[in-house]
Specification:
The protein has two helices and three strands; from the N terminus they run E-H-E-E-H. It is of the alpha+beta class and 74 residues long. It has one domain. The protein has a three-stranded mixed beta sheet. It starts with a strand and ends in a 6-residue tail after the last helix.
Length: 74
């Protein structure tokens, strides 16, 4: 069975920034094979557990230079 869920491991300090809405984007070198509107967030050591689920509107794939110019969303 193919799952439509993605598990994303993030350092606890960045998880806190996501929770405070001070971190709005997560940059990865590789894109996901399948798009999912639901991403499960796993906080890595020392937390070592799933801490939340994020509903995703869109995944943007581009070069680092092009991604820098993305306007900050409010």
């Amino acid at each position: 069975m193919i799952s439509d869920r993605i598990l994303l491991s993030i350092k606890p300090e960045y998880v806190e920034q996501i929770e405070r809405h001070t971190k709005l984007f997560e940059f990865r070198k590789r894109n996901f094979k399948n798009f999912s509107s639901e991403i499960w967030i796993y906080a890595s050591a020392p937390v070592k557990r799933i801490v939340g689920i994020i509903q995703v509107r869109d995944i943007i794939e581009d070069t680092p230079i092009a991604l820098i110019s993305i306007p900050k969303m409010s």
